[in-house]
Amino acid sequence: MPAEDPQSKVSDLGIAVQQVSDKASVLVREEIELAKAEVVAKATSLGKGAAAGAIGAVFGFFWLIFALLTLAWGLNSLLDSIWLGFAIVMVLLLLLTVGAVLFAVRKFKVGPPTPDMAIEEGKKIRTTISSASEG
Question: Comparing C-alpha atoms, which of 117, 126, 109 is closest to residue 39?
Fold first, then answer.
């Protein structure tokens, strides 16, 4: 039985360590790319939603002006008081404003776009590497 050369064992170990290091570097780069892609996707979605909301708000604003004027003049005809008709519409607008602001505050509490999937994947990888190095 030929005895193995100690130098070849060290060389094989060095190659194995180099391969592990290279693969760990590739893994880290891929996780960074995943995080970037996730943030870009979320930011793009938020941008499209904001644009659609702005366009809808412009059309809604014009519709609201005409609807409220129609309501105020209709109440004027029913109540025979121009001031009461416009006062009722003003109170209605105040209630709608408060409701919309409360809704907006609740929706904006979501926070900034974060790479949640990449963070979870990174935690799993760290746990796996830690348990493999201990065992």
Answer: 117
